[in-house]
Design a protein that fits this description.
- It is a single chain.
- This protein has 197 residues and is an alpha+beta fold.
- The protein has one domain.
- The protein contains six helices and eight strands.
- A hairpin with a 5-residue loop joins strand 5 and strand 6.
Length: 197
C-alpha cells in the first residue's frame, strides 16, 4: 500500500464523517465535488507548524496557491472546506484582485460579504491588523477541472484594546446582532471577536 493510497483512504473516511456531520446540507454536494475534495485533501502538503499547502496535483486557481499556501489549517465547518485561513491577510485586496466571492459562512443573512469587508477595512484603517476566520469552500468544479472557491467568513477578530465606539461601529457595518466576547486566552493575546456563527 502506497502513502498516496493511505492518504486517499484517510480522506475518504474524513468525507464520510463530514457527510454525517453535515446532515441534509451534504445532499447538495455533487459526486464531482466530493471526489475533488477527497483528491485535494489526500494531496495536501503538511508543514511542521500545523499548516498546509495545496498539493502539486490540486487544480486550484494560481492566485489561491499564491495567497494561501502555508497559511491553511484544517477546516472546521461541515462544508467541503479546502482549509481555513485564521491569520491576517488582505481580504479586500484578494476579493478585488481575484474576483472571488466573500460570504457569511454560516447563514444567508447579515453580515453579507461586502459588510464583512467594510468592517475589516475600518479596523485596518484604524491601525489594527484584523483577521477573519475564513473557510475556502469548494463550491464547484469547472469544466477544465479547476476547483472553484468561495471565501466563507465566520468571525472577525482584532487584538485588544479596541475602543467601545470602534466595537459599535464594526457592528454597525456588519449589520448583525451584537455578540462580542473578549477572549483572555487566544494564543496568549486578548482579542475582540465579532462572531456571527
Amino acid at each position: 500500500m502506497t502513502d498516496q493510497t493511505t492518504r486517499e483512504e484517510a480522506a475518504q473516511a474524513d468525507l464520510a464523517t463530514l457527510v454525517e456531520y453535515a446532515g441534509h446540507f451534504a445532499d447538495s454536494w455533487s459526486t464531482a465535488r466530493r471526489q475533488a475534495w477527497v483528491a485535494a485533501v489526500a494531496d495536501r502538503v503538511r508543514h511542521e507548524d500545523g499548516t498546509h499547502s495545496f498539493g502539486p496535483s490540486t487544480p486550484v486557481p494560481a492566485w489561491a496557491r499564491l495567497e494561501f499556501d502555508g497559511r491553511l489549517r484544517t477546516g472546521e465547518c461541515p462544508i467541503l472546506s479546502l482549509g481555513t485561513v485564521p491569520v491576517h491577510v488582505d481580504w479586500p485586496r484578494i476579493v478585488r484582485e481575484h474576483q472571488v466571492e466573500m460570504a457569511n459562512g454560516f447563514y444567508e443573512t447579515a453580515p453579507y460579504g461586502p459588510d464583512i469587508l467594510s468592517a475589516f477595512e475600518l479596523l485596518t484603517g484604524l491601525g489594527y491588523e484584523p483577521w477573519l476566520d475564513t473557510e475556502l469552500h469548494l463550491v464547484d468544479v469547472a469544466e477544465d477541472g479547476t476547483l472553484q472557491i468561495r471565501l466563507e467568513a465566520g468571525a472577525l477578530y482584532a487584538e485588544d484594546p479596541v475602543l467601545d465606539r470602534t466595537v459599535r461601529e464594526v457592528w454597525d457595518r456588519l449589520g448583525s446582532t451584537e455578540r462580542v466576547c473578549v477572549s483572555p486566552d487566544f494564543g496568549g493575546r486578548n482579542v475582540v471577536e465579532w462572531a456571527w456563527y
